[in-house]
Structure formats: structure tokens, C-alpha cells
Amino acid sequence: MKNENKIIITCAVTGAIHTPTMSPYLPLKPEEIAEEAVKAAEAGAAIVHIHARDPKTGIPTSDVNVFREILSRIKEKSDVVICPTTGGGLGMTVEERIRVVPELKPEIASFNMGSMNFALHHLIEKYKEFKFDWEKQYLEMSRDFIFRNTFKDLEHIAKTFYENETKPELECYDVGHIYNAAYLLSTGVLKPPLHIQFVHGILGGIGTHLEDLMHMKRTADRLFGGNFTWSVIGAGRFEFGLCTAGLILGGHVRVGMEDNLYLGKGRLAKSNAEMVEKMVRIARELGREPATPDEARKILGLKGKDKVNF
Question: How many helices (H) and strands (E) does the chain have?
């Protein structure tokens, strides 16, 4: 279903990139992540993207019990679409990352479209001290880290998604990932219509220039003939600029503390809801209206929150 006036705003609440030292407002405990997600939905997010963290240290975790607690808390208080990650965090195996799909059977989940250098080590120089011992080591390990998503992995992950009626949100960090998706579609591994997310600004992936976004969009248009929905992520200070460009081009957008910690120059966001509110204001100024969760379900063809396992 297409509705060109409606924009799906996704809020990525905590992610696995930023560490506790980087912002005192970054939610870490299950109840904090869930509360941030609910407030983001109240501010206008139709989808919340969820990573889990160890409640004591804030390190990213693949523990399904932590995921279940977070997702259940959100579902209890909101009808927002809940999209857990299968990207996980640095060092997690593919099996650890995708466990949330067969266990929790979400409506939609992220699905990374290729292997890449996923680098965070350049963030170390911004901080003199870290709150937890794991933080510097976690960031440094990315200097010699490959985020693994081989074709064998992609086939296995796709099969797991469809067996559980979970919609894949295809995370494309570069143009080659779009071609990977096209290949998997041609072989029947992926099923139309696709929902693609263009991810800009991760070191190891495509950059944040407007031409980069246009190249991703033109490539997808050529390969899929318009038979797909799409969303934009801009990492760091490029978040709101690239998202604004995306919504002008007719796409959907993602904001939140996974992608960016700042509401404006030198001003840390105190909540994910603040970021959603800013995006809502921009969208409305440009004639786009935020979709409700149920409208997002229709646009993306989701199975409904009554068919999840949490």
C-alpha cells in the first residue's frame, strides 16, 4: 500500500554504536529503553527499532530474555510497530543476532544486506575517560572487524524471517548491498515488495553527501522499478539533513539515539522523543504527515501485533 503523503518515522532508541560515556541520556536498562520507545511513539514514531543492552554495564547483548522484557513492556503500553535488530553488536555471531526472530516472531526486523568494515574506533579520540572498562575495547576492536553477512548467511536469515512471517527491513550501507538484495530477489530468497533502508555515514559504508543518497535511490529505482518502499538513515550530525532530503524525495525516515546523540550543534538530545518531535515538525513544514502505527502496518504489509510472540 502506498500513501505518498504519509511518512513513517522510525525511532532507533539505543543501538549498539554509542556507549554510556557518550551521553548521560542514552537508555541502557530494559525499562529505560522501553519507556523511551513508548515516548517516541507518543511523539509521532510509527516504528521503534530496538537493541538490547546488559542492564548493569550497558554493553550490547543478544540475550532473548532481555529483548522479550523490552518488547513486552513496549507492547503493553503502546500499539507502535516494534522492530528488533538482527544486526546486534560487535562480535556477535549470526545465530546470536537472529535469535530474536524465531523466538519472538516480530512484525518486522532489520536485515543487513552484506558484509562490511563496520568501524567505530575513530570515536575513541573524542573521550579522555570511559565510564566502563568495556567501552574503549569495544570501540577499538572495530579497527579489525568485519560485520559478517555472507550470501550463505543472508539465505539462512531470509528463510528464518519468512518462516516466522517477519518482514525484512533491508539495511543497505552501500550500493553493493542494493545489488545483493536484487540478486536475492531474483533467486526467490527475498520476496516482493521490498522495504529498503539506506544507511549513510558509518565508517566502512557509503557517505553522507546528498549525491550519495541520490545514487542509492536511483540504483534501487533502476533495479526494482519502483516496487519497493524505502527509508533513510543519516549518522551523526547528518541525521536531520539527510532525513529531510529523504522525505522530500518521497521516502520514510529514521531518527534516534542509535544514529545520533545531538538535537542540534553542541546540544545533546535529552530523549528520543525530542528527536522524533523535531522530525515531525520538519515533515509537516514540508507537507508530509506522520503515519500512525496502523497506517505503517498497511503501507509495509505487516502481519499485525497480535501475531507476535511477546
Answer: 11, 16
- Give CA–CA dist 60/89, Å, rounded: 6
CA-to-CA distance for 262 and 22, rounded, in angstroms? Answer: 11
- pTM comes to 0.96
Which of 282, 232, 238, 234 minimizes the C-alpha distance to 252?
232
Q: Hey, what's the cell of 156?
A: 539462512
The rounded distance, in Å, linking the Cα atoms of 55 and 30 is 7
What are 106-129's pLDDT values in tens digits?
Answer: 999 999 999 999 999 999 999 999
**How does pLDDT run across 209-242, given as a tens digit for each residue?**
999 999 999 999 999 998 999 999 999 999 999 9
Q: Which amino acid is at 191?
A: K
Which 8-state DSSP code applies to residue 174?
A: S
Cα 151 to Cα 158: distance, rounded to the nearest angstrom = 10
Q: Give the alpha-carbon dihedral of 111, 140, 62, 130, to 10 degrees.
A: -130
